[in-house]
Write a structure and sequence with these properties.
Blueprint lengths: L1 E5 L6 E5 L4 E6 L2 H6 L2 E6 L3 E5 L4 E4 L7 E5 L7 E3 L6 E5 L10 E6 L4 H4 L11
Parallel strand pairs: 3-10
Antiparallel strand pairs: 1-2, 2-5, 3-4, 4-9, 6-7, 7-8, 8-9
Length: 127
């Protein structure tokens, strides 16, 4: 299925190809908990930025591998390049318009990222 999404002000819009029932991860690390990010990691070729590239800003911390992109206007982070899958895109399910009714959420222990990152490594590979 093709899902459309956006930031809050809709300056940034995108679409992502994902199954009808979304398998998402809820991470308990500090940035994900504070931003309310619900993870849908897909191969990069299943994601298309439709508008708003000029409205995006990038935040990096720690190792600097993850590229946390957010809208400069409204501050929402609708997607980013994750450290666990730098060849993929991680879409915030909460930014899909509308949020799909069928979402299975799995907890992910991002507070202990080094011990658990391998559980996510496969998500950006084509299925």
């Amino acid at each position: 299925m093709i899902y459309r999404g956006s930031c809050h002000c809709r300056a940034v819009t995108f679409e992502v190809e994902a199954p009808p029932v979304i398998e998402a991860d809820r991470c308990n690390c500090s940035i994900c908990s504070k931003s309310g990010f619900l993870h849908l990691i897909v191969p990069r070729d299943r994601f298309r930025l439709l508008s708003g590239e000029e409205a995006l800003a990038t935040y990096r911390f720690g190792t600097g591998v993850a590229k946390h992109t957010f809208c400069r206007i409204c501050g929402i982070k609708p997607f980013y390049t994750p450290r666990s899958n730098p060849d993929g895109i991680d879409v915030n399910v909460n930014c899909l318009d509308p949020v799909p009714a069928s979402v299975n959420v799995t907890p992910f222990d991002g507070q202990n990222w080094e011990q658990h990152a391998h559980k996510l490594a496969h998500k950006s590979r084509p299925s």
